[in-house]
Amino acid sequence: MEGLNEEESAIVELVRDFVDRDVKPAVQELEHANTYPARLIDQMKQLGIFGLAIPGPWGEAHVSTPCYALVTEELARGWMSLAGAMGGHTVVAKLILHYGTPEQQQRYLPPMATGEIRAAMALTEPSGGSDLQAMRTTARRDGSRYVISGTKTWISNARHSQLIALLCKTDPDARPPHAGISIILAEPGPGFTLSRDLPKLGYKGVESCEITMTDFAVPVTALLGGREGEGFAQMMRGLETGRIQVAARALGVGRAALEDSLRYAQEREAFGKPIWQHQSIGNYLADMVTKLTAARQLVLHAARCLDAGRRADMEAGMAKLFASETAMQIALDAVRIHGGYGYSTEFDVERYFRDAPLMIVGEGTNEIQRGVIARQLIRRNSVAP
User: What's CA 69's distance to the chain center, in Å?
Assistant: First the structure.
């Protein structure tokens, strides 16, 4: 926890104790039953986890982005779904903090800090995927309200959120397309329908929903910042935090897989000695810890860049890319180390293997991240006159 102050170090340790005491003993039953973890979510509220990104005067437990990343890692070490339960919420809080009107900040930030209001992001559409500018959801101005129509999918926590940050087109004819995109802070009401929960390989317990809006009306005061056409740039900035959060989730999954593998490799014997003493297993462990350590440094570097006020899309992209690919490899190697038990639902490593792919495709696929990194690399090192 190098670089954290005493209070932040205590917060990370508090979350670590919560994970070891309350999460790990309960996770298998909740995971296999795909049960929403209401009790654990309530404990997270009591710990102040939903307010970590919200400073005073609206919140009481604001921390630096490196501390937030390490808290996320601890939660994901216990159960990645719990880290996912606060990811989109934090991005929405950051959006309101940086771009919201004073009225929006006062209305939403205090109850978001306590978890009384939980928030979700709604970006992806069934036909759009990573191409956000091709979205079809529209918000048409009608006097003192916007009337919204469209469909969003893969919305985490939608069923348990009271606030949805909707990315939509307030000017469908704008050129370039991103100039017509805005963010609407929507509270579910008539015309807003949770049409279905999506079945998933992993990321159990916490719902991912499809939502349909048909003539869904919200007041014009729901427009983030009160100015149309700025939503795309706002969300791209917000996703820097989102990608750091997803990268930190990957750290947690990778760390859990490594810790389980270390324990198993010392307890399991083959040919008269602990299996870690066999070179092939020892090599797996060496590679796992080396890559995980490197991934954590990338995540913390991106977090420090963000806190310094610098543009961090390249750094967040590198962290998310490397950490997620590392988590996937570590999870696979953990299955190899555990042998047949790694394929059994009685051991946690099969869960890590199912959870890890989400970080590869979530918050912008890794193919998108490579494009972001390459564009920023050229922009920062241009040889053009």
Answer: 10
Q: Strand locations in the chain, DSSP E?
A: 119-122, 138-142, 145-156, 163-169, 181-186, 192-197, 208-219, 269-270, 273-274
From residue 92, alpha-carbon distances to 81, 185, 266, 322 in Å are 18, 9, 44, 25
3-state secondary structure of 146: strand
| Bridge partner list, 141 | 146
CA angle 240, 243, 248 (to 5 degrees): 125
β-pair type (163-169, 119-122): parallel
Helix (H, G, I), strand (E, B) or coil at 181: strand
- Catalytic pick among 74, 228, 240, 363: 363
**Concatenated DSSP letters for 150-165?**
EEEEEEETGGG-SEEE
Whether the per-residue pLDDT at 301 is higher than 90: the answer is: yes
Return phi, psi of residue 204, to 5°: -80, 165
Query: Could you tell me which of 109, 88, 113, 192 has the C-alpha nearest to residue 149?
Result: 192
Q: What is the pLDDT of residues 221-273, one digit of tens each?
A: 999 999 999 999 999 999 999 999 999 999 999 999 999 999 999 999 999 99
How many Cβ atoms sit within 10 Å of the Cβ of residue 177?
17
How large is the angle between the packed helices 313-338 and 231-267, nearest 10 degrees? 30
Vertex 320: Cα angle to 317 and 323 (nearest 5): 140
How far apart (Å, rounded) are the C-alpha atoms in residues 165 and 235?
10
Active site annotation includes 230: no
User: Taking the CB of residue 39, how many other CB atoms lie within 10 A of it?
Assistant: 11
